[in-house]
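Format notes (please read before filing issues)

Several people have asked whether sequences and structure tokens are stored in separate files. They are not. Every record keeps both together, in the order shown below: the sequence lines, then the token lines. Line labels are part of the format and must not be stripped during preprocessing.
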Amino acid sequence: MGGGGFGIGFGRVLGIGDGANLGVGVVPVESLLAVLIGTGEFLLTLVAVPAALRELQLVAVPIANMPMSIYVIGFFIVNLILI
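Then the structure lines:
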């Protein structure tokens, strides 16, 4: 997915491409560096800044009581801020 971001949660995999190619994608689990904290439902998002930097930032967002639309919008906001 190049410089895009992606996330993995319990039973969910959501992704966002980089600024030039926004979309939904799935990445191989073995490529993730994620830690699931406790037994609560967390969405762990690895957001990559542009591909030239090749750095990942880990953002853990609790989604237990959060509607789908809120954290999908959050993905786009985080993606746009970092790009």
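For reference, the curators noted about this record: The beta strands are 5-9, 12-16, 42-48, 56-62. Residues 1-66 have pLDDT under 50 and may be disordered.
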